[in-house]
Amino acid sequence: MYLKRQISAKIKKSLSLTPATAILGARQTGKTTFVKHLLKNYKSAFYLDLEKPSDRNMLNEAEHFFMINNNKLICLDEIQLVPDLFPVIRSIIDDDDYNIKFLVTGSASPNLLRQSSESLAGRIAYFELSPFLLQEISEKEKLENYWLKGGFPLSLLSTDNELSNDWRQNFILTFLERDLQNFGFNIPPETLHRLWKMIAHLNGQILNYSQLSNSLGYSDTTIRKYIDILSNTYMLRILQPYHFNIKKRLIKSPKIYIRDTGILNTLLNINDFNELFTHPVYGSSWEILCIENIINTFKNWEPFYYRTSNGNEIDLVLIRANKKIAIEFKTSTSPTVSKGFWNALDDLKTDMAFIIAPVKMAYPYKNNVWIYPINEFLKLKLL
To answer: Residue 157 in contact with residue 51, Cβ under 8 Å?
Structure first.
């Protein structure tokens, strides 16, 4: 069963307009499945899986390969494994004798980003393929199931919770022991696993490098490096504070989240929804579930959070041009907000404000603030 991905139309448009299109994202988000399904629409497409030695060998004489396959759409899957291709691709794009479109995928390797930005600046468009978003899955799928299993396809589509959790445990192990080495990082797996689990316990809190370095016995510089690695490989969301033109004493450190709720639950040994419901992370897991869906749906909006030193706070602030939208997340089916929420709205002078909660339908709350279920909010036109 193939589930249509939200970025499909944008990728097709990019392929018609841009010499090279890159689809980036964490391992196992469905990039290969997506591009193979997409390529069925192109008669002159050629696909290479660069994890296969036989396919990599076809590019030993890359220029000759591209000459033979001129006038085609060429897909290079997991291109970070052959970074030397980027200068060759640039020369092909700039050569008027060639009419090749490139579709490349990569698992968010920093080496991929660095190489492509150096070699293909102005010639490439980037897109992120996240784990499944709520709007991409069947409306019959229970929110609690998505919340527990997360959005990675093989986890979400597992027939029961035990199989799903087994897949996530294996994903974490493979990521730590194999994938990071393929990205060029030589880090003891057990060290990064300890940090990852510690961040899971701190999910949704202000990022304090000193606290983490003291707990793990590493320098602040090392902890920053490890967190950057987890962020650049799409495992973490680092949400920056909003502090522009605000004459208040503000919290200016970012907040840190595990991006996928299924991975979060596995790191915390949460095996069913009752365990999640009674766990201290319950509120922040709802928060990141909503944040990831909102950020990946409203990609033209820049995300922040807002907090002052005296407790005025908004969980998510979306900014686009001179527009500001405030969003608060609550797990209650009868949500209420504190005085700090209203003070923050006054500080920010927002254009719209919402409370996202597991309710059945949208309804007005007070003072032009609306309460919405997450599925309905994602369908809104914010401009």
So the answer is: no
Extended strands (E) in 155-230: 205-206
Which CATH code of 1.10.10.10, 1.20.81.30, 1.10.3720.10, 3.10.450.50 fits the domain covering 135-377? 1.10.10.10
The pTM is what? 0.94
Task: Summarize pLDDT for 33-80 with one digit per residue, the tens.
Answer: 999 999 999 999 999 999 999 999 999 999 999 999 999 999 999 988
| Alpha carbon of residue 332 to chain centroid | 26
Inter-residue contact 241 to 307 (CB < 8 Å): yes
Tell me which H or E stretch contains 370.
strand 369-372
- What strand order describes the sheet that includes 101-106? 45-49, 73-77, 101-106, 20-24, 124-128
Residues of the chain with CATH 3.40.50.300: 8-128
CB 174 within 8 A of CB 235: no
- CATH dotted code for 8-128: 3.40.50.300
Q: Could you tell me where in the chain the CATH 1.10.10.10 domains are found? A: 135-377
